[in-house]
Design a protein that fits this description.
alpha/beta, 41% helix, globular, binds 3-methyl-2-oxobutanoic acid, binds zinc ion
Length: 514
């Protein structure tokens, strides 16, 4: 009888991080990995160990510190990549090396200048090498959906014979159609003699908006691992979205008869955590996790819902972790209630992190009548997730003068490498003045690509959340800051981005992009 469990392989920290501007630091990656483990994913692709010291460190720390899922590193079919992946995973309890090579004629001929025979030989050799390090080895045939099927069968059979335990079939450029992709998986099952010795996985990109449909067609035809990301982030138009795959399998189990090990109530906290950390917002009408996914506007629908939820609701919002009440806490809430709410939102804080967040929460609760989930998320992202990222710059003081009859000016005091430095200057407006002074003190050569400000919740006492994107050379980073004063929030966001650029410079060994 065929196994009916679909493994969920999350690649938010690897392919997801390839979304423009989505790079995360090690602490942020660990926070995401812990949340993925809490949600019950089977495999976490933690990074691409060879690509940079930062990625190596993230894979190593996640492998050692995050319990539950198998932790995986990506590696090209090259000895140095495989050995770096093995080095990063060493000593961890449950690990996998995921190695890949292109198999399509288009890639082999135009990009890699390899013959099929050379690609096959290299793949076999590298899968053997990976098996010399770990027992769990995944092989991906990059651009599989545009590969000549008979060569794909040959490749898959050879890597399974060499020890691959999972064979992944990527639709790398999002070109496949569901029927076609389903037939490809069936073709693999029918033509690869040793296919029963490995799990078939799929990895679909969303260039034509078909990543989820293609993944689904694949599982219907026998794939038992789906590679996906939270909120569907990833290279170009992204990857198949984890929340959609999981909720399709759960909601339509009547027809599909398949299941996953995901605790679906952790889906929404995971989505919020990833969008908060990466700055990639979720579109309001996004299935499962968008703001409007459970909002019923039409009178006829509301009438039906009041009579019976099943009239217009195929999933309960609570089943994906969205609570119907949004108001959470105020100034009388204690530390225990705060910690519990944090945990419900996907943040497991203790020690100094919890102290700092609670202190900020109390200050905010004094200023605002009501503190919402979004406020708490902003506090955690603003304050706590960067605790262990060594910040070069810190805001000590900021005073602004501006108004209808005054030229905007700013006085800023920053801590730079532990020393207080003060300066002042002017600008077109208060934010411009503050940014000019910060740029003068830090001597930054970066360019401001984007600045946006949002009220986190309603009301004039709401916190302002500022997001900036900075570019220096080929590095683009995101900075975030929140405060009830939007000029302070703006300064914090700018300083956060400058710290990230500094952090990035330290991690500058050539970054490989796929
Ligand atoms: O899209 C792709 O083909 C990939 C592989 C490395 C699995 O991301
Ligand atoms: Zn990919």
């Amino acid at each position: 009888m065929m196994d009916n469990r679909v493994r969920i392989f999350d690649t938010t920290l690897r392919d997801g991080e390839q979304s423009p501007g989505a790079s995360m630091n090690v602490e942020e990656k660990i926070a995401v990995a812990r949340q993925l483990a809490k949600m019950g994913v089977d495999v976490i692709e933690a990074g691409f160990a060879f690509s940079s010291p930062g990625d190596f460190d993230s894979v190593r720390r996640i492998a050692l510190e995050v319990e539950g899922p198998v932790i995986c590193s990506l590696a090209r079919c090259k000895a140095e990549d495989i050995d770096a992946a093995a080095g990063a995973l060493k000593g961890a309890p449950r690990t996998r090396i995921h190695t890949f090579i292109s198999t399509s004629e288009i890639h082999l001929k135009h990009q890699f200048k390899l013959t099929r025979a050379e690609a096959l030989e290299r793949a076999v050799e590298m899968v053997r090498r990976a098996r010399g390090h770990v027992v769990d080895v995944e092989f991906s045939a990059m651009d599989a959906s545009r590969t000549e099927p008979v060569f794909l069968y040959e490749m898959i059979e050879a890597v399974i014979a060499a020890g691959a335990t999972t064979v992944n079939i990527p639709d790398t450029v999002g070109y496949a159609l569901p029927d076609q992709f389903g037939a490809l998986i069936k073709g693999i099952k029918d033509n690869v003699k040793n296919i029963d010795k490995a799990i078939i996985s799929v990895h679909c990109h969303n260039d034509l908006g078909l990543a989820v449909a293609n993944s689904l067609a694949a599982v219907v035809n026998g794939a038992r691992q789906v590679e996906c990301t939270i909120n569907g982030i990833g290279e170009r138009a992204g990857n198949a979205s984890l929340e959609e795959i999981v909720m399709i399998l759960k909601t339509r189990k009547d027809v599909l008869g398949l299941e996953t090990s995901i605790n679906t109530e952790q889906i929404y906290p995971s989505s919020r955590l990833v969008s908060g950390i990466t700055g990639i917002m979720v579109q309001p009408n996004k299935a499962i996790v968008g703001d409007n996914a459970f909002a019923h506007e039409s009178g006829i629908h509301q009438d039906g819902l009041l009579k019976d939820k099943s009239t217009y609701e195929i999933m309960k919002p609570e089943s994906v972790g969205i609570s119907r009440s949004t108001l959470v806490m105020g100034k009388h809430s204690g530390r225990h209630a705060f910690k519990t709410r944090l945990s419900e939102l996907g943040y497991e804080l203790a020690g100094e992190g919890l102290d700092k967040a609670f202190e900020r929460f109390k200050k905010l609760a004094d200023k605002k009548k009501e503190v919402f989930d979004e406020d708490i998320e902003a506090i955690v992202q603003d304050e706590v997730l960067r605790l262990e990222m060594p910040d070069r710059y810190r805001l000590l003081k900021l005073n602004i003068t501006s108004g209808t009859d005054t030229a905007p000016s700013a006085e800023v005091e920053l801590e730079v490498d532990g020393k207080a430095v003060k300066d002042s200057g002017t600008g077109d407006g208060p934010v411009d003045a503050a940014y000019n002074v910060i740029a003068k003190i830090t001597g930054t050569k970066s360019r401001l690509l984007k600045y946006s400000v949002n009220a986190i919740t309603g009301g004039t006492d709401a916190q302002g959340e500022v997001m900036v994107r900075l570019q220096e050379g080929d590095s683009i980073v995101l900075g975030q800051g929140s405060h009830t004063d939007i000029i302070v929030a703006s300064a914090k966001a700018y300083i956060n981005a400058l710290n990230r650029l500094e952090y990035r410079k330290k991690d500058r060994r050539e970054s490989l992009s796929l």
